[in-house]
């Protein structure tokens, strides 16, 4: 079984939750409950940079 995150030519979005934690998410897959899109569809190389540059402290804001 292949994962939708495995494709090197796939488009991704950056999602963020209420704790200001960012994650890369496959654009064709529905965003899970509790997460919203923070950065639109980007090539595989672009979205990790946005997530890395947007928040450098990976701890939840409630911590």
Kindly describe this structure.
Helices cover about 15% and strands about 30% of the residues. It is an alpha+beta fold and about 60 residues long. The protein has a domain at about 10-55: Rubredoxin-like (Alpha-Beta Complex). A three-stranded antiparallel sheet has the order 2-1-3, with helices on one face. The mean pLDDT is about 75.
Q: How would you spell out the order of helices and strands? A: EEEH
Q: What's the total count of β strands?
A: 3
* Gyration radius from CA atoms, angstroms: 12 Å
CATH class of the domain at 12-54: Alpha Beta
What is the terminal separation in angstroms?
A: 36 Å
Helix/strand class: alpha+beta
* Unreliable sequence segments: none
Beta fraction: 25-35%
| CATH architecture classification name of the domain at 12-54 | Alpha-Beta Complex
Mean pLDDT: 74
Output the number of helix runs: 1
**Major sheet size, sense and barrel closure:** 3 strands, antiparallel
Give a summary of the structure in a few sentences.
This protein has one helix spanning about 45-55; strands spanning about 10-15, 20-25, 35-40. The protein is of the alpha+beta class.
List the helices and strands and how they pair.
Layout: E1 12-17, E2 22-26, E3 35-42, H1 47-54
Antiparallel strand pairs: 1-2, 1-3
Region (Disordered): 42-63
Protein name: MbtH protein
Pfam family, one: MbtH
């Amino acid at each position: 079984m292949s994962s939708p995150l495995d494709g090197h030519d796939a488009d991704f979005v950056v999602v963020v939750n209420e704790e200001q934690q960012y994650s890369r998410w496959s654009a064709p897959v529905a965003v899970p409950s509790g997460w919203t899109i923070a950065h639109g569809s980007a090539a595989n190389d672009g979205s990790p940079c946005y997530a890395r540059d947007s928040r450098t402290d990976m701890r939840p804001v409630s911590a």
